[in-house]
Amino acid sequence: MTRPKILIAFYSRNGSTEELALAVAEGARVAGAEVRLRRAREMVGPEIMAMAPGWAEGAALMNEKYEAPTAEDAVWADAIIFGTPTRFGSIASELKAYIDGLGGVWFQGRLNGKFGGVFGSTSTKHGGNESTLLSIYNVMAHLGLIIVPLGYSHPALFKAGTPYGATFISQNDSQKPGEDDLAVARYQGERIALLARKVVDAADESTSLSA
Fold first, then answer.
1. Which residues form the Flavodoxin-like domain (predicted)?
2. Residue 211 and residue 208: Cα distance in Å, rounded?
């Protein structure tokens, strides 16, 4: 049985979105998936990063842990799960820059039919979590991904997250994701990985029958 391949491409500055990404990866691995965790890179120079205390240091630490996402990663994957903090109710420019760089493989049709999901975080209540996730639904549709919402298909979703994907509110970076938030994220990774596995298994069976 072939393991489904999951790309988790995310951007995180202060660690909240990173923690969700790790939980998504954990859930996907529980479902038997091979996971690539990739962090999008900053688009500004050190002089801008220096204006926000801890930004440069945090970025350096995370960049040591995670490779930058590539177009090859997206082609490799059976499912792509994007993670982003909210920026004025929409996607962070760092992650959007990575997605915009997928134009070549998109044009070749190499992303069509892959599963897609999204998760995110924001600093404040009503800070745009749902609008951010929904804005990426538009992007995933253009890429040709099969969008996988969560609905209310798990008990954890009655305590945290959204029907569109896992979310977290950091209260101006004073809090870290709790168990309810992480449970939704783990479920999201598991749910998408299980769907991808069904497709991979069907493809393997079809290949075997035609051999």
1. 6-192
2. 5
The per-residue b/e assignment along 10-43, b for 16 or more CB within 10 angstroms, e otherwise, is bbbbbbbbbbbbbbbbebbbebbbbbbbbbbbbe
Total residue count of the chain as it appears in this document: 211
pLDDT tens-digit profile of 109-154? 999 999 999 999 998 888 889 999 999 999 999 999 999 999 999 9
Which CATH number is correct for 5-187, 3.40.250.10, 3.90.1530.10, 3.30.930.10, 3.40.50.360? 3.40.50.360
Note the pLDDT tens digit of each residue in 52-65.
Answer: 888 988 899 999 99
The residue to which tokens 């842990």 are assigned: 65
